[in-house]
Amino acid sequence: xxxxxxLAREAISRLQAAGFPAYLVGGCVRDTLLGRTPGDWDIxxxxxxxxxxxxxxxxxxxxxxxKHGTVTVLLEGLPxxxxxxxxxxxxxxxxxxxxxxxxxxxxxxxxxxxxxxxAMAWSPEAGLTDPFGGQExxxxxxxRCVGDPMQRFQEDALRILxxxxxxxxxxxxxxxxTAAAALTLRHSxxxxxxxxxxxxxxxxxxxxxxxxxxxxxxxxxxxxxxxxAPMAGLxxxxxYHCYDVLEHSAAAVEAAPPxxxxxxxxxxxxxxxxxxxxxxxxxxxxxxxxxxxxxxMAREIMTRLRFDKGTVQRVATLVELHDYPIDPxxxxxxxxxxxxNADAIRxxxxxxxxxxxxxxxxxxxFRLLALKRADSLAHHPDCRGRVAxxxxxxxxxxxxxxxxxxxxxxxxxxxxxxLISLGYARGPEIGKTLNALLEGVLSGxxxxxxxxxxxxxxxxxxx
Length: 463
Ligand code: ATP
Ligand code: MG
What we know:
Among the domains are: 6-140, Beta Polymerase, domain 2; 324-403, no CATH class; 409-462, Serum Albumin, Chain A, Domain 1, CATH 1.10.246. With 463 residues, it is an alpha+beta fold. 49% of the residues lie in helices and 11% in strands. Residues 27, 39-40 line the site of magnesium ion.
């Protein structure tokens, strides 16, 4: 029994009452059987698009892909994608079927679907229709093509990435024959549109088993992301690391919160490393300058995958700053440091935090901390000290954010006009003085209050 929303049931009974068999199908059946909440409710039916429209006359209908048999019906705001049973054939471009034909057979419709777990249908009357062993594969936690995997991936290369994506999302293994075909045919992914690749990659990266997929299937992923290839197997020769660069990046992905920007930044944070590797006399590996080298690479990759400019910029910035020391390297920084030293450290940290919040904004500042934390967690187990530093900096940032804001010159309690009233000449001196006052506020040496800032400006004018 599937606990479908009442409106989805109503849609099915309306179609059935008009004489057309209708079922829930695909992702919603799979997710419901798994006890997960489906993202959307898809219906498959023997009714042709015009017949669907007639059944739902009066409701809002969007012609999503009418030619291919799909219309979206909005029932009290719930969008239901209703698709006519169909078969597909041809696929000469390895992307789209050359021909789509409607069929009266549910089985034929299920046979065109990608994986057994996505090829099940359900209706209140008929119960589950599962001609390819989808339920058994759900129990075995297996991603398996419907039919011959070589043929199915040749038809539509995107399915190769979808196999990896479902495996990452559900933490299912990929059936050996399906995995082998995916590997063999990986180069056909070059034919798939970059937007579609980006959608699947983002879902993959946000999945709980993304790390395993990255490590196990990097050769497939290196078709759309060739920059991964030199990361694989690159021994870091460092006491801080127990993984090669790709394994480390995959571990960082897993340790980062499952949110697209952060997961992409985690995947790409060390993409500059292969081009920066040096060995010192002691045989220790170093990657000097890798964040600076990696940032434009990340920008290139995200642009290539057609991400919007804002996303590209933010991921590139996170990559560039992932090694930026928010806690300044000060002598005696640990528990035994002297009180005056602790004060100096706190001031320096406060200044760094304010500056970064001013540059990145609050949201991306915390993203950067999350990335640094994930990076640290992906180091050798004995070298994860920065996790605690990140927690301390996050607490400090929250304290600072609870105070009235001061991160840029604009947030100062005085402005250029005040300086002019004090007798400053218009011109560069104004900007310089405001910046000097900001430095004072950022480091905690000056309160961001009008009186104190005016007094300080007055003092500076006299020097
Ligand atoms: P999600 O929860 O991510 O939406 P989903 O299984 O619903 O997962 P969709 O991309 O929404 O995935 O596709 C809906 C259904 O259409 C799938 O369950 C599958 O049956 C079928 N399908 C989608 N893409 C393909 C494809 N490239 N080849 C074959 N069948 C596909
Ligand atoms: Mg779906």
